[in-house]
Amino acid sequence: MEVCYQLPVLPLDRPVPKHVLSRRGAISFSSSSSLFGAPDPRQLAQRRGAISYDSSDQTALYIRMLGDVRVRSQVGFEPERRGSHPYLGVDFRTLHSRAESAGSIPVRRIRRLFSFQRHLLSSRFLRGVPHLNPLHILDEDYCGQAKCMLEKVGSWNFDIFLFDRLTNGNSLVNLTLYLLSHYGLIELFQLDMVKVHRFLVLVQEDYHNHNPYHNAVHAADVTQAMHCYLKEPKLAKSLTSCDILLGLLAAATHDLDHPGVNQPFLIKTNHYLATLYRNTSVLENHHWKSAVGLLRETELFSHLPAEDSLNMERQLGSLILATDISRQNEYLSKFRTHLDQEDLCLGNPSHRHFILQMALKCADICNPCRPWELSKQWSEKVTEEFFHQGDIEKKHKLEVSPLCDSETNSIADVQIGFMTYVVEPLFAEWARFSDTRLSQTMLGHLCLNKASWNALQPEASGSSEEPESELEPSSRALPQGRPHS
What we know:
The chain contains 21 helices and four strands. It has helices at 18-21, 33-36, 105-127, 137-150, 160-166, 171-182, 185-188, 193-206, 216-230, 233-236, 241-253, 263-268, 272-276, 282-298, 306-321, 328-341, 349-364, 372-395, 411-433, 437-456, 465-471, and strands spanning 3-6, 25-29, 49-53, 70-73. 38% of the residues are buried. The model is unreliable at 1-13, 23-87, 100-104, 132-138 and 460-485 (pLDDT under 50).
């Protein structure tokens, strides 16, 4: 039986830990190997990454490896323990996966081949290349519907779940590529189309689609919401093309390689990421560094002056770090002060960047402001992810994180508290800044959705203040970063 040893996922340009150096070995793989078995020698120049090390080489540096990078073996199975907690070995990549029988492997292979085929077709229609093969009528039909949806990508009612099905799981690639083209950014920044496409594919692959919530569909949804905000009159007439590019890239990568558990979980299990980032914005720092790793690997900005490229990486990090919920009050207070003093000047680059940060924060937690049919699905997914974490904590006799105990919390409880103490204050201030039809629509959906969850609460007590006070989230009470970080 062919099995895998998992390599640890480390940040860019970090020394390899001693426990890795002690295992002598090497790996080299191509982008096609995961679909078609062993790589074709002619495709070795296209390999996605490589690493070699020896226990005597103490200066070896890690080279970015992506997604489910594994070393093949024929002898046995012993998955790498990702966390360093002495009593807890959790493989985050399979935390939310469902058990599959050994006989389902060929089925999964076939499904991935079909996904790859549709991926090629979707990239063709984005480039306007016709496809005349009559054997792909069904796939062409799906792509045609997806293309029609993209024509309405600026609608707040955009159904990202339907779009993901029509693109066969490639919603993030197709949507982001369309928006980059829509804004003319590819031509303006002279981006290599092959590099752009490869970057987006690797970004999509680096999301863990076994996560109920923090997956590529969530990233696509945030990117679509960001597009809606970029179209708002105040932003549309003030933002530069560089601002728009950064906003879209930050939205697409803001939860890159999210493990499906929150920061407190990583800290109390002594995970290497918590140690690396000193328990400060652990996930957000990891998302940023992962995005930078992909930018450098694909050389997306290699044609730009080095200083410009580094500046874009820094600004991308500033946007992603703003999604840390532990700093929610800090950003909200600053936003409120600017609005009270009426001193926001979008001709000022620092003020424009701050507004981009606030727009990304809104896009990241806008689910309660979507129509009920969409909002309810997101609420169920994020709560499922919470409760998965709570079950793991119970299993290993760890303190259960707030809102993660399925026995003491319901979806309605979690959502009402989140809407009341996190979403409403932020979107009320956003409506002060951008008093448009969209902002009023979002507040209207928020009010209706909150009423719907209140109606679904079982055995609601006479006083609604009591359960709300229990859920009041100082930023510490909420799991790291939104109800979903």
